[in-house]
Structure formats: C-alpha cells, structure tokens
Design goal:
Largest sheet: 7 strands, antiparallel
Family: Belongs to the pirin family.
Organism: Massilia rubra
Protein name: Pirin family protein
Helix content: under 10%
Strand content: over 45%
Order of helices and strands: EEEEEEEEEEEEEEEEEEEEEEEEEEH
C-alpha cells in the first residue's frame, strides 16, 4: 500500500459510540468487554474485544487458567505488563510491554495465559478474529511478536503508528491474513495532530480510544469508548484528529458473511459443529 493510497477524500462518520461492560473472566480478572456478542454481526469478522488495565494485582493476578478455543483466532496485545502463554500444542511464550501474541485456535487448542508479575500495571487488549468456514478446522498456530518486531512509522505531524496487522502508509504489518484482511493499528497522536487511514468500503471498522480524546469528523470520542465507523460505498477511509495527546487502536476487516454459532470459547458455523467441539474437548482431542 503506497503513501498516496492512504489519502482520504471522503472519511467515514461515527455510527455510534460503545462503552462496553465490565465483567469478570478467567479466574477473576476484571475486564471491559467492549465488543460483545450482540455486535458480532455488525462488526464481522470480529467476535470480541476485551480491554483490561489496572495497577491493582487483585484485578489481574489470577490470570486465565487453561481453557479451550476452536474456530477463531485470538490476538493479545500487551500495552504494559507480562503474560505467559502455554498451550496443548506444546507452545510456550512470554509477551511483555508492547508485545503481541497471535494464536490460531483452528480445530482446537487448550491454553493458559498467566501474569508473570505480582505488582505494577497490567494493561492490554484481547481481540477475537473469526476464521472462514474453510479454515475453522485448520491446525493450531501460534506466534509471539515482541515490541521490537512490530513495524512502525511516524508521520510528518508526529503521529506514531505501530502496524500489528495489515498495512498503513506503505508499511506492512507483522501479520497478514488473506481471508479476513485484518488491519490492526496502535496510533499515538500528539495534541492537535491528525491521522488518515484508507479503508476498503466493504470492510467493517472501529476504533477504541484508551488515552485522551479524539475527533472523528465532528464527533468527540473520549477514552474508554469504542467508535463504530459507518459503512458507506462513498467513504474511502477515516480521518482522526486529537483534541489532546491521545492513543487508540484502529481495527478493520473484511466481513465473512457466514453464519456464527457460538458456545463460549467455541465459534463455528452450525450448532452441530459446536456440539462436536464440546464433545471433542471433553474427549481430550484438543491436543498437539
């Protein structure tokens, strides 16, 4: 993608703001579930976005003991803190400040995500990305991407962008996926700076502000809010301006337009496939 292709002529507007809901997950970790199940069709191919952040160990120290997944990918992004991953396929890794763990559950994997710290700040996101029907039973895959491995650039306006997935302003991200074509950017804007990102008209897109406040068009988006970007055949991207020093994640992807059948950590296309996933897990078939 060239620099010119990131010039936005007709930016998308904000369709609505979402505050999310605080829930307890894992062994008692307090998280803000921003993208909930009710938004899965609207934001296809994305299934869930959790935001977590606390300097109170009681909010995160219990972590996420072993649990199964089938039929989708998980992308864990650590803004601050350290998390260790172990899974039934024999993978083990540690992501620390700024690192990403990208896991394709495929036909099934059981894994744990446990803090490697007993104090300090733990902050980050976990995004669930659906798999096309043809790939749901693919072999599990896993990759740790440390902070230094994530491509980044700085615009003339002083905006720093980390390209986790997809491409931005000619910079290719750490991960690419043909089926869903995800874009995942971490965008850090100085006060009064603006940033433009081209987006295919057919892709669903949203951003989540976790520092400061930005304007998308004339719509203020404060910290702790997700802005769903309106779909329009005429719009060619998004234009963001920082009202103050701000930081956000910008996410977009090509919708699969396939049935979604979900039971907790199993996301398939039919209820029969979900029942099979439960049976396979109980039978111990989520191994290497």
């Amino acid at each position: 993608m060239t620099q010119e292709l990131n010039i936005v002529h007709t930016p998308r507007a904000v369709e609505r703001l979402v505050g999310g809901q605080f829930v307890m997950d894992g062994a008692g970790v307090r998280i803000n579930r921003v993208l909930t199940q009710s938004l899965q069709r609207r934001l296809d191919p994305f299934l869930m976005l959790d935001a977590f952040g606390s300097d109170k160990p009681g909010d995160y120290i219990a972590g996420f003991p072993e649990h199964p997944h089938r039929g989708f990918e998980t992308i864990s992004y650590m803004i601050a803190g350290s998390m260790r991953h172990r899974d039934s396929a024999g993978n083990e890794g540690l992501i620390t400040d700024g690192g990403v763990q990208w896991m394709t559950a495929g036909r099934g994997v059981a894994h744990s995500e446990m803090p490697e710290q007993s104090d300090g700040m733990m902050e980050g996101f976990q995004l669930w990305l659906n798999l096309p029907a043809k790939d749901k039973m693919t072999a599990p895959w896993y990759r740790d991407i440390q902070d230094t491995e994530i491509p980044r650039f700085t615009t003339g306006a002083g905006v720093t962008v980390q390209v986790i997935a997809g491409a931005s302003h000619g910079v290719q991200g750490a991960v690419r996926r043909e089926g869903t074509e995800p874009l995942y950017l971490d965008v850090n804007l100085p006060a009064n700076a603006s940033f433009e990102q081209a987006l295919p008209p057919g892709h669903n897109a949203f951003l989540y502000v976790f520092r400061g406040q930005v304007l998308v068009g004339d719509k203020p988006v404060p910290a702790g809010r997700m802005a769903i970007l309106a779909n329009s055949a005429q719009a060619d991207g998004v234009r963001i301006m920082a009202a103050q020093d701000s930081r956000l994640i910008l996410i977009a992807g090509r919708p699969l337009n396939e049935p979604i059948a979900q039971y907790g950590p199993f996301v398939m296309n039919t209820q029969a496939e979900v029942f099979q996933a439960v049976e396979d897990f109980r039978a111990g078939r989520f191994g290497a």
